[in-house]
Amino acid sequence: EAGVAQSPRYKIIEKRQSVAFWCNPISGHATLYWYQQILGQGPKLLIQFQNNGVVDDSQLPKDRFSAERLKGVDSTLKIQPAKLEDSAVYLCASSLAGTYSYNEQFFGPGTRLTVL
Amino acid sequence: RKEVEQDPGPFNVPEGATVAFNCTYSNSASQSFFWYRQDCRKEPKLLMSVYSSGNEDGRFTAQLNRASQYISLLIRDSKLSDSATYLCVVILGGQNFVFGPGTRLSVLP
Predict the structure, then answer these.
(1) Residue pLDDT, tens place only, A22-80
(2) Between chains, do B98 and A105 touch, taking CB under 8 Å as contact?
């Protein structure tokens, strides 16, 4: 079974530039998550989708971050404009459906973003 | 107080040693608890769920203490391959996923 796919794997940009990350979840997984993991810290949930609807985006810095999952499958996360403190690994994860119950999250390899 | 806190580590132990990590959480309404493992520069992977009665999976034992709001992970007979960062995950209401900062373990030959 194919895992969660993410691209690009690495991205280096200058501050104030824009960047977009792409995620393709495991087939059949209705729930998709984007996490930000800063070096030395645990992943921090940015946004959670159930199909193409947003379940939780309380920790998404909406002034610069946006995410969409238009057809309930692939998702994109965008940062515009980027700041130095956005340097981190952006992890996408997916799980079977279940807003009120927990199913194992499967993570992609992540995109390592460096903002100069 | 942070929502989820873990032993800062790193833990450096010899092969064959027993090592235990603790994780405390601040919200008493937290419902589900898990341990994830993250190898260096890799993605997190589920290690085991944590049940109220405690559960064991081979050399790994997880315990939950709701009264004191902490969970623990015990690794017996440590192997070199156990070297990783161990993340505890606390879930509130099925929607609020919070990862701890992780505890790094190095098993030395």
Answers:
(1) 999 999 999 999 999 999 999 999 999 998 899 889 999 999 999 999 888 999 999 99
(2) no
Instruction: Give the separation between CA A107 and CA B37, rounded to whole angstroms.
Output: 12
B87–A contact, CB cutoff 8 A: yes
Q: Is the pLDDT of residue B53 over 90?
A: no
Of A42, A56, A99, the CB nearest to B99: A42
Provide the shortest C-alpha distance from residue A9 to chain B (in Å): 12
* pLDDT single digits (tens) B74-97: 999 999 999 999 999 998 765 678
CB atoms near residue B25 (< 10 Å): 23
The chain A residue lying nearest B42, using CA atoms, is: A109
Identify the CA nearest to A100 among candidates B99, B97, B95: B95
Closest CA to A33 of A82, A86, A95: A95
Residue of A nearest to B101 (CA): A42
User: B28: closest CA among B74, B64, B62?
Assistant: B64
